[in-house]
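Title: Comparing notes on inverse folding

I've been comparing how different people in this forum approach sequence design from structure. To keep things fair, I'm posting one structure and asking everyone to reply with a full sequence. Here's the target:
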């Protein structure tokens, strides 16, 4: 009999609650390193695992392994060390691991409460592992409940009403720094997912003197065309920084996009400017923050806790926790039912073997025209006998004694659950 319980699940990681941005960027994993980690896990005999790596967290969700093995994988395929993980990281096992995943996916564990982006990032990690066969049946089932909990949290509560993103928090930060954005020169570097949303939020707040820069100019022009904005080439980045009052950087680059070399024009003609770095790893060289006329803000400085929309979302937290509890309970019930699946499979195989043996013994005594009728008759009898036994096992799936009686009665050798 297999012990299908929450105990099969483990989560380890490092996130914004305890680790500052300079530590989180060390543990950040790009797509190439995620795939390398999955390959490494497979070589270690781990066959069900996925990774969530965002600006605020890098976490590994896995089955049938230990926190120690997962921590070793993370430190092997990232730039973080074991000492750093043990100082800033976390590990959850069993029920707490599954519960943590639900909280992450619904946005309860996010820096921006109810974060709209996190569910997409969880799905991306799950789908990447699914595509290479690194998610087993129990994990698939768990994720269906996770996605349903997220959907219910949006449909049955108002957690998603006015829910924020990093881009939203960045613009709110900028609007608090400046009295208004109407007459400010704003430079947005990066027009990917976060950049596009940031651009829209800036325009909605009245920003009109906004210039976009992207490594691929076509993408910047596409976004700029929607809002009638200016576009500049990456080679003009120093001049654009010098002219800007507010610089927002949000790219997927693994190295700084703005370095001290890009600040030379600004140093020659200094004026106060705020620079927001919305990336992990950071896209603005930390040394830039030492310039006396520059205030650099990173992910750790963004929050929406002073926002009225946040307070409305906060009131919904107990209802979302109740949804999580319900979905976890349903998944737990399914897990408990799986305990009898190996016995059911063994019983069906045993009854089929008995029927096949008896058919082989009597086949030569039955006329050819009657063989098919006898086949159907015996199959129906076996199926009905099996059905009663299976129903009894499912009704008493929490009882080891009932399962053992059935196994002893039919002399079954139930193997492990085949996921």
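Reply #1:
Here's my take.
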């Amino acid at each position: 009999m297999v012990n299908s319980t929450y105990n099969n699940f483990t989560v380890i990681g490092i996130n914004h609650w305890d680790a500052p941005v300079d530590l989180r960027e060390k543990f950040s994993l790009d797509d190439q390193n995620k795939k390398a980690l999955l390959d490494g896990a497979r070589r270690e005999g781990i066959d069900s695992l996925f990774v969530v790596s965002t600006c605020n967290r890098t976490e590994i969700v896995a089955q049938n392994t230990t926190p120690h093995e997962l921590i070793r994988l993370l430190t092997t395929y990232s730039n973080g060390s074991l000492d750093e993980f043990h100082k800033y990281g976390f590990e959850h096992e069993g029920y707490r691991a599954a519960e943590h995943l639900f909280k992450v996916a619904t946005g309860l564990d996010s820096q921006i409460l109810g974060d709209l982006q996190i569910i997409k990032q969880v799905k991306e990690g799950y789908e990447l592992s699914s595509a290479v066969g690194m998610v087993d049946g129990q994990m698939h089932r768990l994720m269906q409940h996770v996605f349903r909990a997220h959907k219910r949290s949006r449909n049955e509560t108002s957690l998603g009403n006015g829910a924020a993103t990093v881009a939203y928090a960045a613009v709110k930060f900028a609007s608090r720094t400046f009295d208004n954005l109407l007459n400010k020169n704003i430079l947005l570097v990066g027009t990917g997912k976060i950049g596009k949303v940031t651009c829209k939020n800036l325009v909605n707040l009245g920003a009109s003197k906004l210039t976009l820069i992207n490594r691929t100019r076509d993408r910047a022009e596409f976004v700029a065309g929607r809002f009638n904005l200016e576009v500049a080439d990456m080679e003009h980045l120093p001049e654009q920084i010098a002219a800007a009052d507010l610089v927002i950087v949000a790219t997927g680059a693994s190295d700084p996009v703005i370095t001290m070399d890009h600040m030379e024009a600004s140093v020659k003609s200094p004026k106060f400017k705020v620079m927001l770095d919305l990336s992990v790893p950071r896209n603005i060289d930390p040394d830039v923050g030492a310039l006396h006329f520059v205030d650099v803000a990173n992910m750790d400085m963004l929050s929406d806790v002073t926002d009225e929309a946040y307070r409305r979302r906060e009131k919904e937290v107990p209802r979302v926790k109740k949804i999580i509890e319900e979905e976890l309970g349903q998944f737990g019930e399914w897990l408990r039912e799986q305990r009898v699946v190996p016995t059911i499979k063994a019983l069906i195989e045993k009854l089929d073997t008995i029927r096949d043996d008896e058919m082989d013994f009597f086949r030569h005594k039955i006329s050819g025209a009657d063989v098919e009728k006898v086949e159907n008759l015996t199959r129906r009898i076996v199926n009905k006998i099996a059905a009663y036994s299976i129903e009894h096992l499912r009704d008493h799936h929490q009882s080891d004694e009932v399962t053992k009686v059935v196994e002893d009665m039919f002399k079954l050798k139930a193997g492990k659950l085949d996921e």
